[in-house]
Each structure stands twice: as structure tokens, then as C-alpha cells.
Amino acid sequence: MDYKKLLSKFGWPLLLVALAALPLAGLVGPGFSSHVLITVLLTAAMAQAWNLIGGYGGQVSFGHSVFFGIGAYGAAFAVCVGKTSPWPGMIVGAVLAAVTAVIVSYPCFKLKGHYFAIATFAVVEIFNRVFMIWDWVGGAVGLDYTILEDGWRNFTWSVDKRGYYLGALVLFALVFTITRVIERSRFGYYLRAVREGQETAESLGVNSTGVKLTAMALSAFLAALCGAFFAQYNFRVDPPMVMSLDMSMKFVLVAILGGIGTFWGPLLGALVLIPLQEYSRAYLAKLGSGVDLIIFGLIIILMMVYQPGGILGILTGSRKRQARLRARLAAEGGAK
Questions:
Q1: What whole-number distance in Å separates Cα of residue 119 and Cα of residue 105?
Q2: How buried is residue 184: exposed, middle or buried, by Cβ count under 10 Å (0-12/13-18/19+)?
Q3: What number of CA atoms fall less than 13 Å from residue 142's CA on the CB side?
């Protein structure tokens, strides 16, 4: 029986079924563990949204916090200023993020390698300063939510976290399913071809600029939806919370930790980073602030030195070693 093929075919739907069953089993409620689980799903979705352009497309962007922030401000503006449901703000924010991504990325894509990465750093700083002085969206103070009625209309729950969990699960499923479809589509092959060699892909008829802009727009749209959820979950938004290099680095590092350019990598990275970050923050706070970041930084350094393929690279390498060992033992047994 080929377990690898079975996992590839049924692993994703079985995972969604298992995650959807957690609230029914009473494993999601008001506790801290539920917060960690929600944050894992959100962070995995964020990293996968970035992975579309950064992993599959090979365009390492450090500017995704801009799109994340536009989505967050879209939802918060609808609630705090428009005095309406966050849902229209989520959609408008996601569309604006996609449009912004195309406008900003078109000139940036003329740069290559680390020059492109440096340009995206500058984009974050520009948007951060603009929103800091933009009084219409609260400026440096940001936007604070008032007390809202619990329920799906306001996407707000003050006691139980099951609603947030289901929302995070839907977002997680949406982002990962879109990635799975793209991964196995012609567009996904074009995207990987551009990553491996833009000139070679263009010589074969691939419109590299169109492919990268489309991937960036979709990546920004999904990142903005994650930002809208973040704003609803935290009941406020301000520029340092969402449009910062710290937030941009989270997009990138989670994907790298799990395995960049792979379907399961962002989830594996979030499964390691978020519990480590949240529980070390909760139980090691007496050692001082930033302990979780120190631990995470050490893990990233060790991973980059010894296994650049991330956690998925470790698992794949272990599987290959076991296969080689079985082959060697079989050969030795046949020789006897």
C-alpha cells in the first residue's frame, strides 16, 4: 500500500474533518488552549498566503504586513467608523489590498533577488508612516472597537471562542484549498517555472510578469482576509500591530521554518512556532519580555544551518534514510 499517495489524496480532507470535529468533542471553549489553536490556524493561513508568491513564485517579499494591515483596517473601519457589520469591510479591504499589491509590485518586480526584498522593506515603512498620520483611520492611536452584540453578524464573541475557531477554520481551509488547486494547475507550474528560472520560463512562452502579478494579487487578497480576522479577534487595530516589519517577518519565518514552497510547510511551521511562542510567553514571562522571540530566533538559525528545507525537509530526509536502509538490508539479505 502506497501511504504517500493515500496521504496526498485524502490527507487534506481528513485533516479538515478532524479540525471541524474538535468543537463537537468539546475541545474548543473559552480557555487559553483554544486561543493557541485559533492562532495556529490564523498563522498557518497567513504563511500559506505568503507562500504563494514567496515559496512557489520565489519572490521573497517582506511587505505582506501592508496587505494584512489593509484588510485589518477594512474590517475595523466598517465597524468603528461606518458603524456596520465587518463583512463588507473585509471584502473591500481584501480587494484594495490586491489592487495595492499590483500597483506596488509592478515596479518592484523589475528588481531581482535581494534588491526586490529591500524594496518591499521600504514599502512597509512607507505605509506604516502614512497610516500613522492618517487621522481618518485613527492615526497612531488606531481604531478601538466598542462593545458589540455577539454573533456572526458582528463576527464577535466575548465569552466563548468557538465562533472564532470556526471562522479561523474556514479561513484556513479557504487559503489552503486555493493553494492546493493552484499547486496542481497549469498556473502553479508556470509559477514554479518562473521561480526556477525566469529567463528560461519566458523562452518557453510564459508571461513571467503576468504570472507574478497574478500570484501577488491573490496572495495579498488572502493576506488581507487574515488581517480582517486578526482585527476582529483583537478588537482593535493600529499601524504597529499590523503594518510592521515584525508582522512581515512572521509571514516569512513561519513558512521557512515549516518548509518554503511546500503545501504542508506553513502548517508545520505554525504548529511549532505558535505553541512555543504562546506558552513560553505565558510561563516564562518572569524571565523578561522577548523570551519567546529569542527561542524562536535560535530555532530559525539552527534550521537554516542544518536543514534549510525546514521541518518538512527533516521529515522527508528521515523517510529517505529509512527507504535507503530498507533497500540495503534487502540487498544484504538477497546476497546471503
A1: 9
A2: exposed
A3: 20
> Could you tell me the pTM of the whole model?
0.89
* CA dihedral for 161, 162, 165, 171, sign (positive or negative): negative
**If you search the block for the grid coordinates 515584525, which residue do you land on?**
246
Per-10-residue mean pLDDT of the chain, 336 residues long, equals 59 87 82 91 96 92 94 96 94 97 92 85 93 92 90 90 94 96 94 91 90 96 97 94 89 89 92 86 68 73 70 66 59 58
What single letter denotes the amino acid at residue 182?
A: I
CA dihedral for 108, 114, 115, 118, sign (positive or negative)? positive
Nearest alpha carbon to residue 181 among 97, 94, 263: 263
Question: In terms of residues, how long is the chain?
Answer: 336
**C-alpha cell, 155:** 463576527
Chain-centroid distance, C-alpha 245: 15
- C-alpha span between 119 and 108 (Å, rounded): 7
Interatomic CA distance for residues 290 and 303, integer angstroms: 20
Q: Cβ(72)–Cβ(231) under 8 Å?
A: yes
